[in-house]
C-alpha cells in the first residue's frame, strides 16, 4: 500500500491538484511518448472517480498535476483551502490487481487553531 496526502491550496481547489513527483510511481505506467495517464479511484462511499494525471512535456522537472475529474471531485465534496486529500494505492495479493482510493478530510479548527482532520 502506498499513500500520498496533501493539504489543499487555492489552486488545488479551483483548477488542478499538484502532487509530489513520488506520486507518479504509484500510477499506472505512462504510454511511450505520453505525458498523461488516467486512473480511477473510489471514494469512502465506494463511488468511482476518474482522474487524469499529467506532467510537463518539457523540462527537467515533470511537475505532476491532476486535471480531468479533479474539480468535479472538489465541488462534490465541498473541499476548501486547508482541507486534506489522500490517495491510497492497494494491490490485491491474490489477483495482483491494483486499485486506488481517494479520501477527503475536512480541516477542524478550534478557536482558529487547526486541531486535525475529519473524514467526510
UniProtKB/TrEMBL annotation:
Under the heading InterPro entries, the entry gives: B3_DNA-bd (IPR003340), DNA-bd_pseudobarrel_sf (IPR015300)
Domain TF-B3: residue ranges: 2-106
Coiled-coil regions in this chain?
A: none
- Protein location: Nucleus
Record keywords = DNA-binding, Nucleus, Transcription, Transcription regulation
Q: In its keyword annotation, does this UniProt entry include Repeat? A: no
Q: What Pfam families is this protein classified in? A: B3 (PF02362)
Q: Which CDD domains match?
A: B3_DNA (cd10017)
Q: Does the keyword Transcription regulation apply?
A: yes
How is this protein named in the record? TF-B3 domain-containing protein
